[in-house]
Amino acid sequence: MSTTPVLELRDVSKAFGAVIALRSGTIAVDSGSIHALVGENGAGKSTLVKIVAGLYQRDGGTLRLRGEDVDFSSTAQSKAAGVAVIYQEPTLFPDLSVTENIFMGRQPTGRLGRIDRKAMRHEVERLFTRLGVVIDPDRPAEGLSIADQQVIEIAKAVSLDASLLIMDEPTAALSGVEVERLFTIARSLRDEGRALIFISHRFDEVFALCDTITVMRDGAYIATSSIAGTSVDRIVRQMVGREVTELFPKQDTTAGAPLLEVEGLTSPGVFHDISFTVRAGEIVALAGLVGAGRSEVARAVFGVDHYRDGTVRVNGRTIARGRPAEAMRAGLALVPEDRRKQGLVVESSVGNNITLAIRHQLSRLGLLTVGMQNRAAREWASRLEVKSYALDTVAATLSGGNQQKVVLAKWLATEPKVLIIDEPTRGIDVGTKAEVHRLLSQLAADGKGILMISSELPEVLGMADRILVMREGRLTAEIPRSEASSENVMLAATHASEQLS
Question: ABC transporter domain location, by residue (predicted)?
Answer without folding.
Answer: 7-497
